[in-house]
Design brief:
Keywords: FAD, Flavoprotein, Oxidoreductase
Strand content: 5-15%
Protein name: Acyl-CoA dehydrogenase
Largest sheet: 4 strands, antiparallel
Cofactor: FAD
Shape: globular
Strand order of the largest sheet: 2-3-7-6
GO biological process, one term: fatty acid beta-oxidation using acyl-CoA dehydrogenase
Number of strands: 7
Helix content: 40-55%
Distance between the termini: 73 Å
Family: Belongs to the acyl-CoA dehydrogenase family.
Length: about 450
């Protein structure tokens, strides 16, 4: 069945709720193509009707003991084939910068990513899962033709997965200039020594490539020219996956967040990306769009949490103190605040996506930072209210809320902690200090001049 026919089938039977396209904020609607609107509706139905039901099977199929890290739930392969047939594949690469991908803008993909964020399986099913999306952007934007053939092509086909190695256990990685992993040139190879952790994706047996940041020129006078990015094939001699880290007790199998040791790891010089000293440039190009992807998925998680809260408070069996939950004023206040906060945060994210489309990630640093800081905090607040509405059930495995909270909480640290972005935003905003001081001084002087011209005295406002 064609993509159009499938969607028409889904929408044909009786009166349906608002479609995803109808829910696009009016401010952004004119910037979304008809093709993107049709795909957005299809993404919504695919997630709601196929991926979310499959999430339960995904968790049931996770392996135990050693199988947890050398197998993966087979239902994900079925969902991938389904997504390919529906044309829901590699939706993320923005059309104004890449010839690869489905040809949507950051805004259009951002709207789709919201729905992907409602399901554990949806992002991977559509080949739009982190860290692969960011790694594919690195290869598509900066990779050589040989690097693209070897690594980008199978990543875009979904036959392999990847990991991103930047954070280190022994330094303050919020300042990436602190990284210590050495990448020293020896003839036609680089030799790598050091440790990485929170290497998301490295636990997956399908992970075949590590996008790795290290220092090639530790003595360069410019601390932002000391770092480079190199492609490290998984299984290279000297690379040891030491352990997989838990996130609030969740191991995120088979994806995983690994701690990895490098001991005299020899990598061909041809695996360097863009050239020595270009690491910061590459990482900034990678993280900007990625932060928007995380933010939109977080909007979806918040929407899902609100759905669960609404279902709970409308359960006729739940009647504390003689009244149904939805009859208690505090509950209605939670619902109203959650709707306000979600809708407000969505506009901040879409504004950032549109700004990236207008220029690039570098030209949208303020807007990206706003979304990166605001959205996870909003989502955590909404999820926490949903947890509270469920009581003890909200913190156990009987709902997805506890796991959702754990995942979103990491985003306040990932891709740069909130405090780093707040500090930079504060510095940039404070640059207006001299300008606004002069403006206020001028306005005061003009007011005094007008008082004199009109021969009146100022009056107290008290």
């Amino acid at each position: 069945m064609s993509q159009h026919g499938y969607m028409q089938n889904l929408l044909a039977d009786g009166k349906k709720p608002q479609t995803a396209t109808e829910k696009i904020p009016i401010l952004a609607r004119g910037a979304v193509s008809d093709r993107a609107k049709e795909t957005l509706n299809l993404v919504e139905r695919f997630v709601e009707e196929e991926c979310i039901p499959a999430d339960t099977v995904f968790h049931a199929q996770l392996g135990e003991a050693e199988k947890r890290w050398n197998t993966w739930p087979p239902i994900i392969d079925q969902l991938k084939e389904r997504a390919k047939k529906l044309g829901l594949w590699n939706l993320f690469l923005p059309s104004n910068h890449f010839k690869e991908g489905a040809g949507f803008t950051n805004l259009e993909y951002g709207l789709m990513a919201e729905y992907l964020g409602k399901s554990r399986t949806a992002s991977e099913a559509t080949n739009c899962a982190a860290p692969d999306t960011g790694n594919m952007e690195v290869l598509a934007r900066y990779g050589t033709e040989a690097q693209k053939r070897q690594w980008l092509a199978p990543l875009m086909d979904g036959t392999i997965r990847s990991a991103f190695l930047m954070t280190e256990p022994d330094v303050a990685s919020s300042d990436a200039s602190n990284i210590k992993l050495t990448m020293l040139r020896h003839g036609d190879h680089y030799v790598l020594n050091g440790s990485k952790w929170w290497s998301s994706g490295a636990g997956d047996p399908r992970c075949k490539i590590y996008i790795t940041m290290g220092k090639t020129s530790p003595n360069h006078k410019n601390v932002y020219k000391q770092q480079s990015v190199i492609l490290v094939p998984a299984g290279t001699p000297g690379v040891t996956v030491q352990r997989v880290l838990n996130v609030y007790g969740y191991d995120d199998a088979p994806h995983g967040h690994a701690q990895i040791k490098f001991e005299n790891v020899r990598i061909p010089a041809s695996n360097i990306v863009l050239g020595e000293g270009r690491g910061f440039e590459i990482i900034q190009g990678r993280l900007g769009p990625g932060r928007i992807h995380h933010a939109m998925r977080s909007i979806g998680a918040a929407e899902k949490a609100l759905d669960w809260m609404l279902a709970r408070v409308n359960d006729p069996e739940k009647k504390p103190f003689g009244k149904q939950l939805n009859e208690h004023g505090v509950i209605l206040e939670w619902i109203a605040k959650s709707r306000l906060e979600i809708d407000s945060a969505r506009l901040v994210v879409l504004n950032a996506a549109m700004k990236i489309d207008e220029s690039d990630a570098k030209g949208a640093l303020k807007e990206i930072a706003e979304a990166k800081i605001l959205v996870p905090q909003m989502a955590l607040t909404v999820i926490d209210r949903a947890v509270q509405s469920f009581g003890a059930a909200g913190v156990c495995q009987d709902t997805p809320l506890a796991n959702m909270w754990a995942q979103i909480r990491t985003l306040r640290i990932a891709d740069g902690p909130d405090e780093v972005h707040l500090q930079q935003m504060g510095k940039n905003e404070n640059k207006r200090g001299k300008e606004v001081t002069e403006k206020l001084r001028w306005q005061k002087e003009m007011g005094e001049k007008l008082l004199s011209e009109w021969n009146v005295q100022p009056k107290s406002h008290l």
